[in-house]
Every structure is written in structure tokens, then in C-alpha cells.
């Protein structure tokens, strides 16, 4: 049951929440709009709504809608490559986004489902190529694929949505032991054993499968090489070793990327 005394909302809204909360079908609304407060008027950051399976029943249907858009590009003669991304374990995208909860997660603003923005995919690949060798960013093929300040790239990185319906959202925790040191308060102190840990709760996605599609706006762009590697080779390497999202240094967001053949995609 909702504790309306902990919500800073009008009376009529409080009445609605008490009587119709179970009708809310969008997890994004619950996660980002339903916020409880404690007696000190501080956000109760431990209070994360339960992510019920029915919130995400539309995932597969939404993936089919995106496939329809991609097929339209194909009919116009554009080359498209679609990949299956299977994280080894957990993944969380958008953890550091601005949020009243201190931590966040990227959820679709309409459907409320977790997804990976195309801009994030593009950034992960381009940054990985630069990380391997900064000079790669001056490569003509790099500029053609990713664009420059004055010219758009010749590849569209589509948003990536979940392709399976047996994934689940799970509450995870990070527990900084030297919070006063990390927060750099007015009187910062050195890391010490007498400082109290401050648990921070956040959501992650487990058992996820994502479909990542790239649309090539010019012929033969898919086969362009940067430092003797194709885009596909760079992508596989970036997702396997670099990962996407937050906490990749701990293994979050790393996984296997494989090309989906046309006959497999239509199966």
C-alpha cells in the first residue's frame, strides 16, 4: 500500500494513488515520478519500485516495430547490419543521469522499457577505437563513419531494445566505505576506517539480449577499415572488453556481439 504521507503531492493525486496505483502500466513513471520522502523531507533513495514482469510485456512487440522501420531502409537500398548482444552478466545504462534518486537508469520515455540509446553505442565504439590509438580519429574512414564537427557520419546507430522476454530487473548495491572522502565535503577527510559506509541502491538488467542495428548510408561503408579492422571487428572488441553503460571496470555491460544473418533474423 502507498504511504501518501511520504509523498509531496496534492490531495486528489494522493487519493488516486491509494485507489489506482495497480493500474500504472509504465515502469518509467513509477521509477522517475513516484518518489517517497522521509521525515526530514529527504528522498528515500532505498525505495525503488518493484519491476513487475507485466511492465515489459510490450518489449518484443516494440522490437518488431523497429524491425519494420529497418526493413523500410532496406527497401530503399540501404545496407543494414543487425547484431545480437548478450551481456555476460549485468548491465546498467544511464546510472549517472540526473535523478532525484541519486542514481538512474535509461528507460524508454513512452514504453518504460530499458534500452541502449544509439548515441551510447556510437560513443562506445568510437571511444574504443581512440583508446587503442588516438591517431585513429584522424583516419579518413573514421571520419566518414563517425562524422566530424562539420559533417555527419555515414552510419546510423539505431537505439537497441531487448529481444527477449525472460530478462529481469534486479536491485543491486554499491557500498562506498569512505563516503566523506569521495563526496569532498567542506571539511574533507582522508579515507579512514571510522567512516560509515553509505549503501547506494540501483537497478540493473540481467539475462538480457539486445539487438543492435546499424544502417549504412553509402555503399561499401560497412567494409571500410580503420587501422586494418572493419567496424564489425571493432564493435566485437569494444563490447567484449570495454563494455557499455556504467561500472564496466567491474564487468558490467561486457558481452558477446554476433552478427545476425538475414535468414536468422526472419525466422
From TrEMBL:
Keywords: Antiviral defense. The keyword Hydrolase does not apply. InterPro entries: CRISPR-assoc_prot_TM1791, RAMP_III_fam. Residues 92-254 form the CRISPR type III-associated protein domain. It comes from the Bacteria. It holds the Pfam family RAMPs. GO terms for biological process: defense response to virus. PANTHER family: CRISPR SYSTEM CMR SUBUNIT CMR6. This is CRISPR-associated RAMP protein, Cmr6 family. It comes from Thermoanaerobacter italicus (strain DSM 9252 / Ab9).
Amino acid at each position: 500500500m502507498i504511504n501518501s504521507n511520504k509523498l509531496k503531492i496534492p490531495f486528489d493525486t494522493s487519493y488516486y494513488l491509494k485507489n489506482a496505483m495497480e493500474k500504472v502500466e509504465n515502469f518509467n513513471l513509477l521509477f522517475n515520478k513516484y518518489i517517497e520522502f522521509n521525515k526530514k523531507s529527504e528522498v528515500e533513495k532505498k525505495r525503488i519500485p518493484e519491476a513487475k514482469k507485466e511492465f515489459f510485456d510490450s518489449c518484443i512487440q516494440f522490437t518488431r516495430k523497429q524491425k519494420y522501420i529497418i526493413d523500410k531502409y532496406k527497401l530503399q537500398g540501404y545496407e543494414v547490419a543487425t547484431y545480437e548482444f548478450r551481456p555476460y552478466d549485468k548491465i546498467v545504462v544511464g546510472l549517472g543521469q540526473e535523478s532525484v534518486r541519486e542514481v538512474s537508469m535509461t528507460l524508454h520515455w513512452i514504453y518504460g522499457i530499458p534500452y541502449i540509446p544509439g548515441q551510447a553505442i556510437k560513443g562506445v565504439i568510437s571511444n574504443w577505437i581512440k583508446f587503442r590509438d588516438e591517431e585513429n580519429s584522424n583516419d579518413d574512414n573514421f571520419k566518414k563513419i563517425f562524422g566530424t564537427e562539420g559533417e555527419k557520419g555515414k552510419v546510423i546507430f539505431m537505439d537497441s531494445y531487448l529481444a527477449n522476454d525472460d530478462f529481469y530487473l534486479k536491485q543491486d548495491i554499491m557500498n562506498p566505505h569512505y563516503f566523506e572522502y569521495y563526496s569532498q565535503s567542506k571539511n574533507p577527510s582522508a579515507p579512514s576506517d571510522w567512516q560509515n559506509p553509505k549503501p547506494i541502491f540501483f537497478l540493473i538488467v540481467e539475462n538480457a539480449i539486445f539487438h543492435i542495428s546499424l544502417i549504412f548510408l553509402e555503399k561499401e561503408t560497412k567494409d571500410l577499415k580503420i587501422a586494418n579492422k572493419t567496424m564489425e571487428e571493432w564493435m566485437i572488441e569494444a563490447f567484449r572488453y570495454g563494455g557499455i553503460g556504467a561500472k564496466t571496470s567491474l564487468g558490467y555491460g561486457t558481452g558477446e556481439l554476433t552478427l545476425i544473418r538475414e535468414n536468422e533474423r526472419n525466422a
